[in-house]
Amino acid sequence: MDTAFELTLQMVLTVMAGVAAQVVGEVAKVPSIIFLLLFGVGLGPDGVGLLHPQELGVGLEVIVALSVALILFEGGLSLELSELDQVSNSLRNLVTVGVFITLVGGGIAAHWLGEFPWTLAFLYASLVVVTGPTVITPLLRQVKVDRKVATLLEGEGVLIDPVGAVLAVVVLGIILNGDADPGSIIGGLTVRLGIGVLIGAIGGGMIGLFLKRASF
């Protein structure tokens, strides 16, 4: 069978499975992330073997990067700045102190309970720092909580994604280079987040000006 056709078929099946998981989640009144995981595992190499993401090669990384960007963009649009101001202190603590506590606590737990080597334990901890809007938003749709709590969780879910992604890259780079200096972690994280915030602020400002002046 033609390789291009096989890749196209896999993409079509992936989209259909994703849509089906969303529909089943809505009907069952259960967060769709559960069915997305079940369908992904079931259709993947460890299940019936219909989907083989590794065949996409570098294209898989591109698709994941674009998908994450779209998810964060959509999540950012759903945030209300006026509501975030009411929980700004708690939100700041979650994406700063909370990240550090999760990183240290997760690393220690992975080493002592999972018997991971220290390097692998902290790499694992840097990955589980992230909650993400794909998990938080479906849960908030099913569980009714106070509006301030919901705003705090939504804001944390969106803002923690880039922090966790950059943290994982920094930790992995330090592990591969054999340099475990805490200053390197903090410095690398600060530089990367600073550049990201600068680019995001400039890009967001330009898009905002364009939308305000556009006639459509």
Largest sheet: none
Query: For the CA atoms, what is the radius of gyration?
Result: 20 Å
Q: Give the proportion of residues in helices.
A: over 70%
Annotation field: number of helices: 10
Q: Could you state the order of secondary-structure elements as H and E?
A: HHHHHHHHHH
Secondary structural class:
mainly alpha
Strand content: under 5%
Mean pLDDT: 82
Produce the secondary structure layout.
Layout: H1 3-28, H2 32-43, H3 58-77, H4 81-84, H5 88-95, H6 97-112, H7 118-128, H8 133-142, H9 147-177, H10 182-213
Helix pairs in contact: 1-2, 5-9, 6-7, 7-9, 8-9, 9-10
Notes on the protein architecture:
There is one protein chain. The longest helix has 32 residues, at 182-213. The model has no long low-confidence stretch (mean pLDDT 82). The protein has helices at 3-28, 32-43, 58-77, 81-84, 88-95, 97-112, 118-128, 133-142, 147-177, 182-213. The protein is mainly alpha-helical. It is built from ten helices and no strands. The chain starts with a helix and ends with a helix. It has a domain at 82-213. Helix 5 (88-95) runs parallel beside helix 9 (147-177) and helix 9 crosses helix 10.
